[in-house]
Amino acid sequence: MLSKRIVIIGGGFGGLYAAKNLVKSGAHITLIDKRNFHLFQPLLYQVASGGLSPGDIASPLRAIFKRYQQIETLMAEVLDIDLANKKVKLADRELGFDYLIVATGSTHSYFQHPEWETFAPGLKTIEDALEMRRRIFRAFEQAELCQDPEQRAAWLRFVVIGGGPTGVELAGAIGELAHYTLKNDFRQFQSAETEVLLLEGGPQILSAYPPDLAQAAVRKLNQLGVTVKTKTLLTELDAHQIKVKSGDQVSHIRTETVLWAAGVKASPLGAILAKASGAELDRQGRVQVGSTCALPNHPNVFVIGDLAHYTFKGAPLPGVAPVAMQQGKFVARWIRADLAGKNHPKFRYFDKGNLAVLGRNAAIAKFRRLKFRGFPAWLVWALVHIHYLIEFDNKVLVSLQWGWNFLTRKRGARLISQKSDERS
Amino acid sequence: MLSKRIVIIGGGFGGLYAAKNLVKSGAHITLIDKRNFHLFQPLLYQVASGGLSPGDIASPLRAIFKRYQQIETLMAEVLDIDLANKKVKLADRELGFDYLIVATGSTHSYFQHPEWETFAPGLKTIEDALEMRRRIFRAFEQAELCQDPEQRAAWLRFVVIGGGPTGVELAGAIGELAHYTLKNDFRQFQSAETEVLLLEGGPQILSAYPPDLAQAAVRKLNQLGVTVKTKTLLTELDAHQIKVKSGDQVSHIRTETVLWAAGVKASPLGAILAKASGAELDRQGRVQVGSTCALPNHPNVFVIGDLAHYTFKGAPLPGVAPVAMQQGKFVARWIRADLAGKNHPKFRYFDKGNLAVLGRNAAIAKFRRLKFRGFPAWLVWALVHIHYLIEFDNKVLVSLQWGWNFLTRKRGARLISQKSDERS
User: Fold this and answer.
1) Closest in A63, A141, A184 to B75, CB measured
2) Predicted pLDDT at B268
3) SS3 at position A30
4) What does pLDDT average to over chain B?
5) CB-based contacts of A336: which residues, under 8 Å, 6+ apart?
6) Which residues of A are catalytic?
7) Strands (E), A282-423
8) Which range among A293-297, B239-243, B395-399 shows the weakest confidence by mean pLDDT?
């Protein structure tokens, strides 16, 4: 008998955990990703702020699976999925499957304003992070060159849109840069003159946290020179200024650097799957899946991670790494049981809590009824991240780089790379 | 009395050593570079082959000088130099100087074929190295995807043009990848099937070395799967094949990856200086300078490093880091003596020998009459490079990464970054 074929699309947390847990299934596994590496996305903001290099948080997918001959890795883009004939279409090839796991995640969304992307880069890919890094450090360099005080202030004003964990981590990292790392680096200004504005449309930043923890985060951000404005909406944006609305009050703010951490939308494969299976898409473009993460009427086709809308205890699960990991592992177990003709398992989500980091050595953490903050929360954050990095073998370097940065407050990866069309 | 103004253009080895040795001169120093970092160019080939991240070999210039208030660093492009009025022109600013040091180095040259750059990237900047890395690792990925054996062989054939140290190091690094690092990574082929061709126009690779050492290098390269072809000229080049001429014999070679390590030309500031001062330019565009590195009739304007044509004992000094460092240090001493009204020093070049690395643990070294090779030469190479990296504070990380790579043969920085116009 030929072995069964499992195709996994996407090498993020969901796809990787599915693949790892299918190694002993006896099936032939093909992992397809547009990129040749797994990206440890939770640390992407550290690349954007010059603390880590891209290579520190990216692991080559085929290096992870090199020992397993039954896992084949392809760097390719999936153009279409034919559910009726059980085929995945690449540019010049088709792959048949018995089981399919789609885990292509999400990208940032500018809602009704796709034109904003040029002025306010988001943070989902390595290239995004390098573009942010380029803009952040270029702004400081331009401030040093600039001889007009108002224009200098505009270069030293950073606006972060969106008060979720990414926005908070970015704003904190820029505050940290301005107050510590870049101290004494400039001759025309003090880097502590830097202003960081964190704008949030809702009534509270970090809405997944209880109000007292969010308040503690605001205080810590203030210490790093970050001004938090809630109930504030961005209404206009160009290369040199923004217009924001807070209640009835409209204000213009001059700034040369706007960073986007506001919205996400699901990968376009979601719409293809929804159309082919009759599944519904939610507002973010996520596919509504059943209790086994499968599509309606296609028990062998699974959607997991940020691309899936999975209702658990009456609410959709959030788009965070632990959900993707647990779903990947669960789907692998389900397939192994199916292949072995055993009873299928049921998915139970285990909430591992929330952690958000604030600058160099503080964080807030919530685990069920337990709440904590400050240095202990930061320590938990660091240990949790190092633990997960272990599996992708970058642990040694990242922890060393962190130890080094922590002791010296230096940031070695501050280089302003040029865009390829500006090469000289 | 106002302090004297020294302007240094270029933050490479020459400019950096000049600045460091002028710290105590009492003058006000402005260091101008297009980029915000010093690049440790001798290790650029390791970025191109995925062994190191760009951040590992780049040091922010203003971090190097943060403690010295008398040194101002500007990230800007110099558009013109007005020798008569002693002014350096930036985009929207002019800087006056009493002493000027120009050390803007060189870039790669495609001789009469600028159109070749698209098909065969060179290796002078971080972006160049990332483009090479992208092409090298993409070729292996395409070979895995590809189902036509001839096309797969073309993806697995790498051609390096130019048998100088850079070409030899690149070819050795790709051989190392194919034979060790990527072993077992692919399912459709054995990575040892990879062919690396190193093409050299002259009769010997590594022309700065005696023939027996060059022969030893060829043998070591052969062990890594590299075929060395001397007296072979590239005559045509497109995206899928090359045409080469060896004596009367012309051959076509299918390949998807051609890397350029053949020629250099000096930075365009050389021509501006030559025109303004009456200095001569050599064939590579380098400025002929006098015994103090100064321009004719402009004793306070110095050209050093790869941009200078300095005749020493009847021959021009080579474009290598030790020359730039020694000239930077010398010019600083000359200016300090001048400021103090003391006798001017004379430049004496101290030849520190030559070192070229061949794969993971071999090198060849020549120091005056002393020649050695193999692992001892590699150890010297590693120690020398770490020693120079000390000053730029990346030593710890680089040596750790090397230790790690050496033990595991892994390469963590293998990511295929996309060009910015291909972002998804």
Assistant:
1) A141
2) 95
3) strand
4) 91
5) A21, A22, A24, A25
6) 169
7) 287-288, 294-295, 298-303, 308-309, 311-312, 315-316, 354-358, 362-367, 370-373
8) B395-399
Residue A419 has a CB neighbour count (10 Å cut-off) of 14
Token pair recorded at residue A160: 């972060």
The residue assigned the tokens 């990787």 is: A16
**Beta pairing partners, A361:** none
Cβ within 8 Å of B, A 212-241 = none
- Partner B, chain A 4-43, Cβ-Cβ below 8 Å: 34-37
The one-character DSSP state at B4 is: P
Cβ contacts of A400 on chain B, cutoff 8 Å: 396-397, 400
Q: CA nearest A140 in B: which residue?
A: B75
Inter-chain residue contact B144 with A75, CB threshold 8 Å: yes
Task: Tell me the pairing of strands B287-288 and B308-309.
Answer: parallel
Task: Give this prediction's pTM.
Answer: 0.91
Query: Coil, helix or strand for A251?
Result: strand
Q: Is B60's CB within 8 Å of A417's CB?
A: no
> Do A192 and A238 meet the contact criterion of CB atoms below 8 Å apart?
no
Q: Going by C-beta distance under 8 Å and a sequence separation of 6 or more, which residues neighbour residue B262? A: B108, B109, B110, B111, B161, B162, B164, B167, B201
Helices (H), A9-125: 13-20, 44-48, 61-64
CB A124 within 8 A of CB A47: no
A412 shares contact with chain B (CB less than 8 Å):
yes
CB contact under 8 A, A184 and B66: yes
Tell whether A114 is within 8 A of chain B (Cβ): no
B residues 179-208 lying closer than 8 A (beta carbon) to A = 184-187
Q: Is B70 on the interface with A (CB under 8 A)?
A: no
- Given B127, B131, B169, B176, which residue is catalytic? B169
CA A11 to chain centroid, in Å, comes to 14
Distance CA A145, CA B92 (A): 9
Tokens of A272: 């293809």
Nearest Cα residue to B29 out of A187, A62, A231: A187
Question: Tokens 């402009």 label which residue?
Answer: B298
Taking contacts as CB-CB distances below 8 angstroms, the residues of chain B near A137 are 36
Each residue's pLDDT tens digit, A235-267: 999 999 999 999 999 999 999 999 999 988 999
The arrangement of strands across the sheet holding B257-260 comes to B226-229, B195-199, B157-161, B257-260
Q: Bin B210: left if φ > 0, else alpha if -120 < ψ < 50, else beta.
A: beta
ipTM over the 0.90 cut-off: no
For residue B423, the chain A residues in CB contact (below 8 A) are 125, 127-128
Quick check: B131 and A420 CB within 8 A?
Answer: yes
Pairing of strands A87-90, A80-82: antiparallel
Cβ of residue B394 closer than 8 Å to a chain A Cβ:
yes
In degrees, to the nearest 5, what angle opens at C-alpha B112 toward C-alphas B109 and B118? Answer: 60
Distance, in angstroms, between B122 CA and closest chain A CA? Answer: 12
Whether B424 contacts chain A with CB within 8 A: yes
- Write out chain A's pLDDT in tens, 424 residues: 579 999 999 999 999 999 999 999 999 999 999 999 999 898 899 899 988 888 878 888 998 898 899 999 999 999 999 999 999 999 989 999 999 999 999 998 998 899 999 999 999 999 999 999 999 999 999 999 999 999 999 999 999 999 999 999 999 999 999 998 899 999 999 999 999 999 999 999 999 899 999 999 999 999 999 999 999 999 999 999 999 999 999 999 999 999 999 988 999 999 999 999 999 999 999 999 999 999 999 999 999 999 999 999 999 999 999 999 999 999 999 999 999 999 999 999 999 888 888 887 888 988 888 888 888 888 888 888 877 776 665 555 565 666 666 666 666 677 776 554 433 3
Beta bridge partners of residue B72, listed in sequence order: B30
Query: Is B169 annotated as catalytic?
Result: yes
